[in-house]
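Support request, priority: normal
Reporter: lab tech (M.K.)
Component: structure prediction queue

Hi team, I submitted a job for Ubiquitin thioesterase OTU from Echria macrotheca yesterday, and the status page still shows it as pending. I've pasted the exact input below so you can check whether something in the sequence is tripping the parser. The sequence length should be 313 residues. Please let me know if I need to resubmit or if it's stuck on your end.
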Amino acid sequence: MPKTQMRLRTPTGQERLEIDDTEPLGALIRLVKEKTGLVDFSLKYGYPLKNLEMSLDAQEKPISDFNLRGETLVVVPTEAPPAPVAVEEKTQTFNPKGVEPDETSLEWPDRGGHLVLRVMPDDNSCMFTAVGGAVGVENPSQFLRHQVCEYILTHPDKYNKAILGEDPTRYTSKMMQMDTWGGAIELSILSEVYNIQICSIDVKSLRVDRFGEGKDTRIIIVYSGIHYDRIAFCLDLSYPVEVDVTKWGVEDEEVIEKARELAQRLQTMHYYTDTTDFVIKCEVCGWIGQGAKEAAQHERETSHGQFGEMAIH
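Reply from support: The job had stalled in the queue. We restarted it manually and it finished. Here are the results:
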């Protein structure tokens, strides 16, 4: 018997559900109640989020009528649940370079929630973490690096020495090292691997770079010069990141404009590094240089890919 598989996101986590297509919607609602312990709630799905009809008449219709196969159902309690224990820890990760938590989100009344900046660890894998989390990959840093390198080596006509700036074998060997930064080449490849458009918003210029034209779905990341973070939508700021919405249809330009508005707020707080003249230090050998060009030259000459910005007082 055909079954509908979907993902259920709740204020406390997420899990997969499976139910026969012929079962009524009411059976799905009862299953959600059993899984969550909630009595009063609404269900949202799609990109952008929309309400699932839960009237008594609708509950008698078969699941197959609602086209929920492969969807993510977001459970929205009628009353917000108590803040999870992890909120304090999450708030601490929301404070990079002096940016306060209430300054990294924008209320979005039209969609009943908030657009937020999910700040990635400053560990030289921020781009992989930002993208991996948006597409739903757990512990993505090493896994996505492997996927990028495999793609490069299996597409020598597309990613050759002229494009990469060095021999593909040497390039991929360095990229597999956890202290090597990812950039535009890696974003282009990940767009192909996951069949998704990746929109990168530059905080300094507010420019939107789109990797993967012609895709149906997009994710949004923020680039602040030498660091990447992720854009997400949440129904309530107290909810854990596991229930974030991180994918939107490519026709949804409103979310791009909202994300640029958030980036503009970050810009006013100087949440970016000017890579044309910033002072940078190689964490491997202690070399000190100025600007992205000198850093790139040092990396080519030494294969050192771990850098940090130096504060000048």
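The CA atoms of residues 122 and 137 lie 19 Å apart. The first strand starts at residue 3 and ends at 10. Let us know if anything else looks off. Ticket resolved.
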